Amino acid sequence: MKTVSTATRDWTRDSVPAGKRDLWTAMKRGFRGRCPRCGQGRLFRAFLKVDDNCSACQLDFTPHRADDLPAYLVIVIVGHIVVPAALWIETNYAPEVWLQLAIYLPFTFVASLLLLQPVKGAVVGLQWALRMHGFDEDARGDIPPV
């Protein structure tokens, strides 16, 4: 009688050797609006519209899925700047409400607009460095033979 082994080997990303991608370099390049792989081509073709591919190295940007994460991160960053400043100013100087609104609202609006594109670029760089959402050129849909 022949015995059958029940142990199976599943394909995982760890089973395929892949080149290491530097996370911080990719995020810095994305933050600057450049391709996370080469750092030369533009990442955005409009304010928040990611280009289809890199003009220098032809990296395909279409797999990215930044979705709402950049907006959430911008809210957290700007909130951590505006709220402590507002509390400190209120407790130490107690200016009029109209003056506070005249300062905090425009600052919040401008800071959010200025940070949104760089943060989205950093998120795309993060996804590329971690091989998320189709940025893995080595990923195969088939399971290798045992």
What keyword list fits this structure?
146 residues, mainly alpha, 45% helix, disordered C terminus
Walk me through the structure.
The chain has 146 residues and is mostly helical. It has helices spanning 23-31, 69-92, 97-129. Helix 1 crosses helix 3 and helix 2 runs antiparallel to helix 3 (97-129). The radius of gyration is 23 Å and the shape is elongated. It starts with 22 loop residues before the first helix and ends in a 17-residue tail after the last helix. Residues 140-146 have low confidence and may be disordered.
- Unreliable spans: 140-146
**Cα-atom radius of gyration:** 23 Å
How is the biggest beta sheet arranged? none
Strand content: under 5%
Summarize the structure.
The chain is mainly α.
Q: Helices, strands, pairings?
A:
Blueprint: H1 23-31, H2 69-92, H3 97-129
